[in-house]
Amino acid sequence: MLAMNFRGPYRVRIDNEKSIPAILHPNDAIVRVLRSCICGSDLHLYHGLVPDTRVGMTFGHEFVGEIVELGSLVNNLKVGDRVIVPFNVSCGKCAFCKQGLYGNCHESNPSATAVGGFLGYSHTAGGYDGGQAEYARVPYADVGPVLIPEWMDLDDAVLLTDIVPTGYQAAEMGGIQKGDTVVVFGAGPVGIMAAKCAWLFGAGRVIVIDHLHYRLDFVRQYAQCEAYDFKELGDPVVFIKKTTDSLGADVCIDAVGCEAAGNNMNTLLGRRLLLQGGSTTALHWAINSVKKGGIVSIVGVYGPIDALVPIGNVVNKGITIRANQASVKRLLPKLIEHVKSGVLNPKEVITHRIPLKEVAAAYHIFSRKLDNCIKPVLIPDNA
After folding, report:
1. pLDDT digits over 199-208, tens only?
2. Which residues does 246 contact at the CB level (< 8 Å), separation at least 6?
3. CATH of domain 3-162+327-379
């Protein structure tokens, strides 16, 4: 089958000799992929910033498809069903899954205790091959996959595997109250969705900070929010304080993570020398921009090693920090209803639909921010 093949940092190619995956456990399913996305988190792998990303891996934690084979213990699906596949690999039975913390499953990732398993990510997340391929194996298929409603467009469905739930949970973790000022750092797909979803929780003002003008223009239109280039603000923390009567924002959301620009020292230590778990610039800005007693919500991805964080400011300001990987399964029923009602229109974030066989070009376009790319979707020929 055709599958994306990781050959090392900044090197991916299409492989036409990878075997179609097989059932390895009675709870497995084999899915014929109909749509898959490239995520900003995939770029962390592509750029060589995530430990234990092995040559030969197939990325892709955002995909939907059609069931073609089922293990003997999967009774809630049938061959031919079209399904949304959450990026979380979750057993549904451990202490954390029972709390709805599907991103923290204790059984799906033997390589780490801090995070559950993810499809198509490094071996720090379990080492599962992903969906940037014609076929994918889905473990715990009796738990994760959700039927795609007949009325739903596949382009909407594929964005429900990660970026919509992650953006929604970013706003949810912010504990937004009616009239709150919410600042989102990062105008990538997740930041765009977090800004959009902040209104659903009652925000009175939503501000997005980034430095790519085409993204800022997009989020202004899509999320009906304010958007500013931090390079034109001088110090974004000072700007936010001034525009909030010197108090700070009620809620700040870090939707950037380990590849944040804007501070030379953090870029050097976190992105060039890899001495900390990424550049923490956006997190610094979030902590310093939020009001005393405010909430910082973190959905940006950072590595497992130590990072420079102004913890003294967190303590002295009485800030609450909430952070996690999105629990997609928990959120899907609500988000499907939001799509059905027209409250959310995920597919409008897609700017590029690219054949799977051109995956190397797709990564180059998305990584280098070419052609005003917001969100690329890969489509296999057999879809």
Report:
1. 999 999 999 9
2. none
3. 3.90.180.10
Place of tokens 């559950």: 116
The first and second tokens of residue 7, run together, are 């050959």
Task: Compute the C-alpha angle 255/259/261, nearest 5°.
Answer: 90
- Token look-up 């899915």 returns 31
Task: Quote the tokens at residue 128.
Answer: 């599962």
Name the pTM for this structure: 0.96
Instruction: Show the tokens assigned to 19.
Output: 């075997």
Q: At 206, list the tokens.
A: 């939503």
Alpha-carbon gap, residue 34 to 132, rounded angstroms: 10
- Give residue 284's identity as a one-letter amino acid code: H
What does the alpha-carbon distance between residue 136 and residue 62 come to, in Å, rounded to a whole number?
A: 11
- Cβ atoms of residues 56 and 4 within 8 Å: no
| Integer Cα distance of 201 and 306 in angstroms | 33
Q: Where are the domains of the chain?
A: 3-162+327-379, 163-323
The position carrying tokens 């079209």 is 82
Residue 253: φ, ψ to 5°: -120, 125
Can you give the C-alpha Rg of the chain in angstroms? Answer: 20
**pLDDT single digits (tens) 241-296:** 999 999 999 999 999 988 899 888 888 888 887 778 888 999 999 999 999 999 99
Determine the 3-state secondary structure of 227 from DSSP. strand
Domain 163-323 has CATH 3.40.980.10: no
Asked if residues 268 and 312 have their Cβ atoms less than 8 Å apart, the reply is no
Question: Which residues, at least 6 apart from 383, have a Cβ–Cβ distance to it below 8 Å?
Answer: 32, 33, 34, 35
